[in-house]
Amino acid sequence: MLIAAVVDASAAYLQRQGLDTLADGAALRGADLGATGEDVYHGGVPADSLALTPAQARAAVGAYLQQAGAYASYPGLTYAVRIVGDRVEVSLHAPLDLPLSVPGSPERATVGAEGSAIVGVDG
Length: 123
Known about the structure:
By secondary structure, this protein is α+β, with helices and mostly antiparallel strands. It has 4 helices and 3 strands; from the N terminus they run ααααβββ.
């Protein structure tokens, strides 16, 4: 039973690490492409921060996950995007397929990760 617990914990850790990487990349893409909306073209680039276009940031996150093959790597993957000021926050969740089963453990587990990125202007 101890071996099963160690194997399952290792599998969960590795999947979470993969989701961490995806969440960070998705947040960076969302912040980058979400800050190139019409407001920049009409008003110019502000001195301190760029305004995020929430719809563009969300679309960029979805496209990033698709292009990165996230849905093939993590079947059942779901994501949420929040825009908080100049920050894009991405939350990912995916079912966890444990290689071994430990008696008393849940039948269906999920693992999640979060990433965020801030849009700024280098001056």
